[in-house]
Amino acid sequence: MKKIYLDNAATTRVADEVLEAMKPFFNEKYGNASSLHSFGREAKQALEESRNKIAKFLGVDASEIVFTSCATESNNFAIKGIAFANKNKGKHIVTTKIEHPCVLESCKWLEKNGFEVTYLPVDEYGLVRPEDVENAIRKDTILVSVMYANNEIGTVEPISEIGKICREKGVIFHTDAVQSFGKIPLEIDNVDLLSASAHKLYGPKGVGLLLIRKGIKIDTLLSGGGHESGRRSGTENVAGIVGFATAVELAKKEMNKEIERQRKLRDILIKNTLEIEKSKLNGHPTIRLPNNTNFSFYGIEGESLIMRLDDKGIAASTGSACSSPKLLPSHVLLAIGLSPALAHGSLRMTLGRYNTKEEIDYVCDVLPKVVEDLRKISPYGG
User: Fold this and answer.
1) Which of 70, 102, 166, 322 is catalytic?
2) What would the pLDDT profile of 163-218 be if each residue is shown by its tens digit?
3) Pairing mode of beta strands 4-5, 314-315
C-alpha cells in the first residue's frame, strides 16, 4: 500500500541533498569545532560557512545567529533569557493564547518565578490584533512574543505591524518562526529575536537557531565552555548545522515555486473537504501558510479519524505533534471559539515538497468515506 505523508508541520523527511552534505561530517570531517588542530579547524570552517549562509538568507549579520538543539530550546532561551536579563526594567511579558506549548510553558514557568504574563486573545481565524498588542504593553513590559504563523491552523500573523509597535514602544519583540521559516518570505526588520528549526524544512532533527539582534541583552541558559560566542555552551552539532544550511539554501531556491505549487494542492484539499457535510475549515481562509489545512468534523473524534486514515495509508495529525499524545482539546482551536467537542474532531493535513496532485486526489476520494463511516458509529449520532 502506498503511503502518503501529510504531516509536514510535525516534521519533514531529510532531503537527499541535505543528507549528502551532512555525511562527511560523521566519518571524515568529524572534528570538534573548538579544537585547534586541522580536524577542528575544518569543522569550525564548516560551522561558520553554514552560519553565513543562514544569515544571508535572513538578511542579518552572521554574528546574530546562535545555533541550538531545537526550536523548543530557542524559544526557552529567548523568553527566559530576556526575562532574567531585563528583570530590573520590568517583569511583564505579552504573548498570545495560541502559541506553541514550549512558549506557553516557558511563560507559565516565569509566572511561578515572579513575572506577570498577559495572554492575548485572537479572533475566529486565529489572528492577533495589533491594537491588542499595543494596548497590552505597559511601562514594565520587557518582551512581546508572537508566533509568525500558527503550527496548527496555519494563520500568518501581522508580524510586521506588531514589530513596529514594539519598536516604537521600546519593547523587545520575539517571534517563533518555526512553521514559516523557509516556507514564505519573512518580514523581520522589527524583529529582535527569531526561533527556527531545521527539521521543519527538510533538514535534520536536533538543530535549531535563535536570531539575537546586536545590542539585545539576554542571559544564557546553558553554562559551560562558552560556545557560540558565549551565548550557548555545548559542542556544536556540525553535521546537523551543515544540513540546516543546505536545507535553507534549497528552500531559498525553491520557495516561490513551492509556494505556488503547494497552495494549489492545499486549495484543492480545502475545496473538496468542505464538501463533506458538517465540516469546517479552521484558520484564516487566505492569510495562511501555503501548505496548511486544518478541519473540524462534527460528530467524530479526531484520534479515530487519524487511525482510520492511517489504515488507508494517509499520515495526518490532530494538531501539534508536541501535544497530540495528551488527548486534550487543542488550546488553539478553543482559543478561536470552537467547542471542546468540535475541537476534538479536528484534522490537520500539511503538505510538503514531495506531495503530488495524485496523492491529494486520493485523499479527497478517501476522506469523505472515512468520515461517513465514523459518523455511523459516533456516540454523537452523526
Assistant:
1) 322
2) 999 999 999 999 999 999 999 999 999 999 999 999 999 999 999 999 999 999 99
3) parallel
